[in-house]
Amino acid sequence: MSTTAMRVEFINPFIGATKRVFETMIGVTVERGLPYLRKQGETHEGLIGVIGLTGGAIGIAAICVSNDAAINICERFVGSRPNEVDAEVIDAVGELINMIAGNAKSQLESYELSISLPSIIRGKEQAIEFPQQINPICIPFQSPIGNFLIQIGFSVPTN
Prior knowledge:
Helix content is 31%, strand content 30%. Strands 1, 2, 3, 4, 5, 6, 7 and 8 form an 8-stranded antiparallel beta sheet that branches. α1 (8-26) packs across α3 (87-105) and α2 (67-78) crosses α3. The protein starts with 7 loop residues before the first helix and ends with a strand. By secondary structure, it is an alpha+beta fold. The chain has one domain (8-34, 44-155): 3-Layer(aba) Sandwich (Chemotaxis protein chec). It contains 3 helices and 8 strands; from the N terminus they run αββββααββββ.
């Protein structure tokens, strides 16, 4: 099965959505780094919020954050600082990827996308396995509350 190149029409809505959600919901400005193709075997430590999108295109969006960044994000959401990664922090990361995906989805209306419930992966050396035909793009972001990475992979079925 061949891989499909990621279209900029999928990437840009997620970049914009990430910036908007962090600015409006968390109150911080984020700075985008240079996007790159995900490397085979690339892993992350901390929390990964994953959400699927289906419809006229099929894809996955994910946010990878360190434990410290996740705690900082949760603090901004709820107004008090958790001492450790707990259920509230995990929920905050799930809600964050849900808001980013929902915001991006509104810019991809022609694909009539539906969003799944978010899932959270937690631990060391964790990776998201995208479908074989999808070649995901990674977009690093820097922020005052911690750096993070957005991963996006979409495929448009051919008829």
